[in-house]
Amino acid sequence: MHFTSEQRLDDGVREREFTLGEIPGVLWTPASASPAEPVPLILLGHPGGLRKMYPRLAGRARHSAADGFAAATIELPGSGERPLWTAVEDARADLRRAIKAGEPVGDEIIDALVLPLVEKAVPEWQAALDALLALPEIGGRVGYSGGVISIGTRLAVVEPRISAAVLFAGSFVPRAMFDEARQVTVPLHVLLQWDDEGNDRQAALDLFDAFGSEEKTLHANLGGHTGVPEYAGEAAARFFTRHLK
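Predicted structure:
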């Protein structure tokens, strides 16, 4: 991990951009974080395009910092400033064509779009976690929040350092991920926008039903993909406070 920039935001949060090999990322830590008092960490998932997503990610990170957590994110493979990934771009083009034509999005398109991303992104998140937990001001439990729900599902299965996860039901899910969902045991808080125009509501409900966690909560709200109410974020924050502190 190589830090490339640093600034203090107006609420005292320390924001540092970094690279991990070719992967860009951002780390936010509250003013209270120190080697003497390390803070828990929340990994912030997103759909790709770190620069475009920065305002929303920074807002989420600053809310996390106010609750006493560090937060970090990395760019997804094939997105943002990372090298173009032709196979995924082709799958995205097929997805856009199907949606524009009003056709159902078939399993073949979903698998081609999501499964390679999961296979590549999850080890990168684990490498980032190795580097972040080596910092003296970060320690304790780890949470995962948001992003592509299949990536969050795989991380919750394979990464024992993740203690709890907030997942956003807003992306297509390959059928293979349902088997993995049954292996998830960490506490889950799943956010669903009931009228999300880009999400298969029934598939999201079926995935929630498949999760094997003894503690899992579905927080469903009326509205489209970008209409998440503020109190939904507050409920997710309370979830992390219960499980990471």
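Summary: Helices lie at 50-66, 86-100, 107-133, 149-158, 176-181, 201-210, 230-244.
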